[in-house]
Amino acid sequence: MASRGRKRKAEAALAAAAEKREKPAGGQEGGVEGPSVVIEHCTSRVYGRNAAALSQALRLQAPELTVKVNPARPRRGSFEVTLLRADGSSAELWTGLKKGPPRKLKFPEPHVVLEELKKYLS
Asked: What element of type H or E holds 66?
């Protein structure tokens, strides 16, 4: 059985390799890709369930957007929704970092995020 240090180093190496593979693929398109929404959430079941519900609502209401869930390793206790524009800028639609307890305050209602999204896209 590997010690904790070795395991963490191996996980970090895998994450770095995955990042390197993603960046060239995105760079080849030349920034032609439209806006996308990134949902970053902690790996807890409750966070994942809320992220899945939100991503489904976003895909139904705005099918032209790309929705990515945890493209990189998430921070502990985080739940954030960010809009990435085609020009490379970003806008934060929701952050639950400083909200709660109770934990349910960390998660937005889908209609709140959709209103913010419409504000930024118009």
From this structure: strand 66-69
